[in-house]
């Protein structure tokens, strides 16, 4: 029973350390940066991107958003075996597709063509909800596994020594 819990904790830790944790941090950083840009522009949403905002949009996409997107895309592609579900969640596939669309946009920008402003594949709204929910659920499971294992070990070591 203890070996089973240890193995379960090891898997939860691996999922948190290699998939959901980095995905969560990169997603939260991206969301904070996005809200910061919108706040700076005095907007509630980025669409439409006005001509006067294009210089900032390109700068933020190239230096902030795409590097974070690349990190998340790499995690999803290379560590997909760590997802909790039996099937790949659609929001993860939609996110990767969204990023691929932006790669085409950035390639055009690299050629001096700024006619495209956004990926043709929109941001999947379920993505952030999925990442937050999954991270929180795994952290709760990790905490429960660690605390219950420690409590049982303490009882095993010290309860037997207590006078009856």
Secondary structure: elements and pairs:
Layout: H1 2-41, H2 54-78, H3 90-110, H4 125-159
Helix pairs in contact: 1-2, 1-4, 2-3, 3-4
Explained architecture:
This protein is an all-alpha fold and 164 residues long. The protein has a domain at 22-134. Helix content is 74%, strand content 0%. It is built from four helices and no strands. The chain has helices at residues 2-41, 54-78, 90-110, 125-159. The longest helix has 40 residues, at 2-41. The chain is elongated. The model has no long low-confidence stretch (mean pLDDT 92).
| Share of β-strand residues | under 5%
Report the strand count. Answer: 0
Q: Averaged pLDDT, please?
A: 92
Extract low-pLDDT stretches: none
Helix percent band: over 70%
Q: What integer value in Å does the Rg equal?
A: 22 Å
Helical region count?
Answer: 4
Please describe the structure with a list of short key phrases separated by commas or semicolons.
164 residues; mainly alpha
Summarize the structure.
This protein is mostly helical and about 160 residues long. The chain has helices at about 1-40, 55-80, 90-110, 125-160.
């Amino acid at each position: 029973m203890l070996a089973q819990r240890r193995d379960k904790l090891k898997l939860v830790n691996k999922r948190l350390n290699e998939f959901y944790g980095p995905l969560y941090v990169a997603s939260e950083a991206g969301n904070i940066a996005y809200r910061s840009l919108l706040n700076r522009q005095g907007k509630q949403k980025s669409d439409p991107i006005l001509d006067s905002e294009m210089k900032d949009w390109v700068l933020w996409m190239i230096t902030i958003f795409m590097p974070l997107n690349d990190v998340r895309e790499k995690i999803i592609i290379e560590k997909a075996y760590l997802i909790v579900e039996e099937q790949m969640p659609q929001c993860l596939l939609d996110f990767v597709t969204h990023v691929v669309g932006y790669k085409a946009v950035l390639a055009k920008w690299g050629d001096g063509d700024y006619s495209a402003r956004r990926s043709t594949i929109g941001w999947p709204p379920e993505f952030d909800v999925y990442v937050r929910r999954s991270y929180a659920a795994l952290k709760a499971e990790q905490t429960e596994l660690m605390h219950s294992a420690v409590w049982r070990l303490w009882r095993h070591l010290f309860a037997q020594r207590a006078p009856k």
